[in-house]
Amino acid sequence: MDIKTSVELIESYLDLDRKPVGIKFFFDKKEFENLEIPQRDRKVTYCNSVQLASKGKAMKLTKENQACPNGAMALKMREIPEPMASGKARFSKNIYHDVETSKSISDEMLFLKEEPAGIAVMPLENFEIDPDVVVVVSSPYNVMRLIQGHGYFNGYTNNLRTVGLQAVCQDLTTYPYNTKDINITLLCPGTRLVANWKENEIGIGIPFEKWFEVVEGVKQTTNPFERNKNKEGIKNRLEKRGFDASGIKFNENYDDGSYSGGKIQVSK
How far apart are CA 59 and CA 143, in angstroms? Predict the structure, then answer.
């Protein structure tokens, strides 16, 4: 499976409104400069660059492009000031009950350890080299399916961590990059403002090392987990892209015969 095929498959098995986004960190300046995608000509928040990429835009970013101080800190393009590191900054804004709790948030976030020369943010399907992280922002249902795909090969998801802050830069990018594990986010007020995510969207960050197995896991768990209505859409999208849809089995689910009372009936 190559990157382009993996995107076509995941877009067939999940009804995505946005494109999966790939993020690549470049620590060699020349390699970054040689990447033939447009350099951003003005500032942008990192999370908004991900949102733009989810709609098809590709860009390269440097330190000079960073419009959000917290995003720049996560990406090691800005030093962490003492009030943030000590917990005083967020405590002063009444985000946490006390300084100790606030400091624990700063201590537990995992940022880049080395400053990159630049970052590429673009639709995953555009990558000809391996990115570092894949970000998918979608409905809770689709994020559930991606976690089920991960669980097919990896079992229980033990290390999900989020706190409603630095959602795209830390939760979805630098945390998966550092841990080589998936993570989810419910997003945060900042990114919902500047990147204009929908209220019902959440996100998942997947280290690229796990991307192909997650895609395969989503495929393998389609028959037990998806209902007939969704299977019809999956079958149609697979066939439209030229994939074999003969493996889609209707009227088969993992919980067949499990519920003694049937579905709840709601009277109108």
Answer: 25
With respect to residue 205, please indicate whether it lies within any of the assigned structural domains.
Answer: yes
> What is the rounded CA–CA span in Å between residue 76 and residue 38?
22
pLDDT at 105 over 70: yes
pLDDT tens-digit readout, 113-147: 999 999 999 999 999 999 999 999 999 999 999 99
The answer to whether the predicted template modeling score (pTM) of the entire model surpasses 0.70 is yes
Q: Would you say residue 12 lies in a domain?
A: yes
CA nearest neighbour of 121 among 41, 40, 183: 40
Considering the domain boundaries, does residue 57 fall inside one? yes
Residue partners of 59: CB distance under 8 A and separation at least 6 = 37, 38, 39, 40, 44, 49, 52, 53, 120, 121, 122
Residue 151 lies in a domain: yes
Domain count, the chain: 1
